[in-house]
Amino acid sequence: MSDSFRAQRASQLESQKSLENSLSHLLNSVADNSPPPTPPPELTPEELINEDFRVACGAYVKGRVKLGVRCKYDLQMAQEKLDAGADINSQDPDGWTALHWSCCEGYDPCIKWLIKKRVNPNIQDNDECTPLWISGYNNQYSSAQILLWGGANLSIKGKSGGTALCKPSISARSQRNPSVAEVIETEEDLRVNDDKRMERFINGEGGGFEEYRTEMKEAITRYKTKNKKY
Predict the structure, then answer these.
(1) Alpha helices in 34-65 (DSSP H)
(2) Hey, is 175 helix, strand or coil?
(3) Residue 49 burial (CB count, 10 A)
(4) 34: pLDDT confidence band, cut at 50, 70 and 90?
(5) Which residues lie closer than 8 Å to 127 by C-beta, 6 or more apart?
């Protein structure tokens, strides 16, 4: 290797080092002059226990660590928070309840538990979406069935972003989730022919969930045949 090449290479390395130092200095300067991060608002004791309850049911809260290691939901913790005064229908800043979060994530045991605790399945978030709408949009088939078994309203319209308001079944179809749409449409068809059906489910008089699921399997087949939806 020639001396001239060594000198040229040394010069290049020196220039690179100088550039890196300059960039580092610039970044540090920007960081030093940037405003401090805005601290999260302090919660009242009531708000905190409600947030704890939602987290126990699967909610994500920025800056909060999930309960336990890789914990999705914790029904024991949720019950403790209820016993301590948490509101089962409390909403986060986006309007999501514990049920919205559980339905979005497909936490079926948590959804069943909330339904049995008489949660309101029809609360709308800031975009007017109910938990059933969220289930349809996110292709959560079992979650949708549990909500229908719990007496969820099928007609409340919601939206996502700039989309137009639509019913839960349409939200499912918009995301190419036909199986979820079919189970909602089938339940809607059954309610049209039985005006007391929704009332029975709301009052917990519609039988167990497994019984409902068996009934729906047969009803969906009839509905698809009648409407030629394959």
Answers:
(1) 45-56
(2) coil
(3) 18
(4) low
(5) 95, 158, 159, 160
pLDDT per residue over 114-153, tens digit each? 999 999 999 999 999 999 999 999 999 999 999 999 999 9
Query: Radius of gyration of the chain from Cα atoms?
Result: 26
Residue span of the structural domain in which 195 resides: 45-227
Which of 22-26, 74-78, 135-139, 203-207 has the least mean pLDDT? 22-26
Q: Which two tokens stand for residue 72?
A: 């999705």
CA distances from 91 to 56, 98, 102, 130, 191 (A): 14, 8, 13, 12, 29
Any domain includes 17: no
Q: Model-level pTM?
A: 0.77
Give the span between the Cα atoms of 25 and 182, in whole angstroms.
60
Contacts of 167 (CB under 8 A, 6+ apart): 133, 154, 155, 156, 157
Task: Tell me if 136 is assigned to some domain.
Answer: yes
Distance of alpha carbon 151 from alpha carbon 137, whole angstroms = 19
In residues, how long is the chain?
230
How many Cβ atoms from other residues are within 10 Å of residue 179's Cβ?
12
Q: Is residue 35 part of a domain?
A: no
Total number of domains constituting the chain: 1
Confidence at 6, pLDDT banded by 50, 70, 90:
very low
Lowest mean pLDDT across 112-116, 173-177, 184-188 = 173-177
pLDDT for residue 185 is more than 60? yes
CB 67 within 8 A of CB 99: no
Q: What angle do CA 155, 146, 81 make, to 5 degrees?
A: 105
